[in-house]
Design brief:
Blueprint: H1 2-28, E1 34-37, H2 49-61, E2 65-67, H3 74-86, E3 93-96, H4 99-104, H5 112-115, H6 126-130, E4 133-134, E5 137-138, E6 141-153, H7 154-159, H8 172-181, E7 190-192, H9 198-206, H10 225-239, H11 249-255, H12 261-267, E8 271-277, H13 281-284, E9 291-295, E10 302-310, H14 317-327, H15 331-340, H16 354-363, H17 370-375, E11 381-382, H18 391-397, E12 405-407, E13 413-415, H19 419-427, H20 437-453
Parallel strand pairs: 1-2, 1-3, 7-8, 10-11
Antiparallel strand pairs: 3-10, 4-5, 6-8, 6-9, 6-10, 12-13
Helix pairs in contact: 9-10, 15-16, 18-20
Amino acid sequence: MMKKRFGFLAMAGIIAAASASSLLAACGEEKFDLSYATWNLSTEAVNNVERQMIAEFEKANNVKIKIEEVSTSGNAYQDSISGLAVKNKLPDVFMLPNINFGLKNQYVLDIKDLIENDGDWAKIPTALEEAVHYKSGVYAIPFSMHMMGYYANVDLITEHNANKYLEGEFTYEKLEGLARAMNKPTEGIMGLSHEQTILEWYPSYVNENYGWFTWDGARYHLDSEEFRTGIEKTLAMRQNKLTYDSLSDEDRAAHFEGVDGYVGLWDNNGLALRWGASYEAPDMSKNVDDIKFLGVPGGRTPIVGDYVAIGKSTQNKELAFKFAKWMSFDPAGISKRIQLEKKVTNTLPMTTDPELIQAYFDKFTLVDGLQEAYEALDSGIVECVKVVPGYNLSRWKAQCGANVTITISDGSSIENPELGVLLDACWMGTERYAEYAENCNTLANKKYAEAIKQFEQYYD
């Protein structure tokens, strides 16, 4: 009997101890005010500026931010966010791989009421701000941005007496003139890196109603005279071999042996003009001393943005917005970023505030011309990849039809080509774009309409 009693008491003690342990564990669980998911945090050990910004927000607001463990690349990141949503754990704030992803899955909160009386919101560059509107709502926050355009090797151009093309307004005639003047392959020098981007920005150069790839905010205009001319300009650059990419393998072997693409040619001081993004400026400056950012002819600088959203299921939208703002366009947050960064930042300041812009460029002198282009960003155009639903299909992946057969640059034939392959054949000269313009425009706009149809009924 005593043994049984002892066994019962021992078991009761074990259960009580286990319960107490569970209670202590529960009490010891860290409580969070918000959750956050993004791909740019690196590791805890590295403690990059993004993590430092989170820590500064926590300290200033006496809150705790839970950093969700997510995959950090491509489709895997999207799958991570969707997986959290399925578990009813959609983050309060999260980076959007593209705005279409948030709208299509109904993950994003309309923040129109939160921005209506926010004076700092009005300082976001216009082109980026307009990109986050859909119908009557606002469903994302511009988080970071980069500018794209042409960079000039000023010393090389001056050495060859072509610096007149760098003076005054940058026009298409100057771009082409400089490419021709510096086209000296027998001396190991080329004028321009590649021609492919011309057809994407050129229509906006000659028509202020068009943006990137003729997008006007509602539809494409691939059958327009402006786009056809853009194709022709791109083709002319290629046929005249004014770019490094347009050279044959034989030409490269003869004149540029050992050069690793146009980036290698730039690093060897053999390239006059290079297309690139502002985040590449530090690397561009390593081997080339005097660089000037020219942007694109006409000054409508292409912009690439990243965007964050507030999760539709958040229980504290005001705090979520405050945090998202701090990480992106809050003047205090931008100032803190400038203070924390020890080297050139990977993004330009998300504001048109002249004092903040000056503070940024005072600390981070990248290359000449970047600040001037930044200060004129209200006339810029946003590259479509992250902001236009269905763009991947409308620009590249849509099939052109079983009745379409084209010849590509290696001489082979392709039936039912993808739209991007067809466009490549046109600017490479194996097909005539005039024969396909109307059908290309119809197809691109059809794919946009199909993308919108997936979610338009959910929004006013």
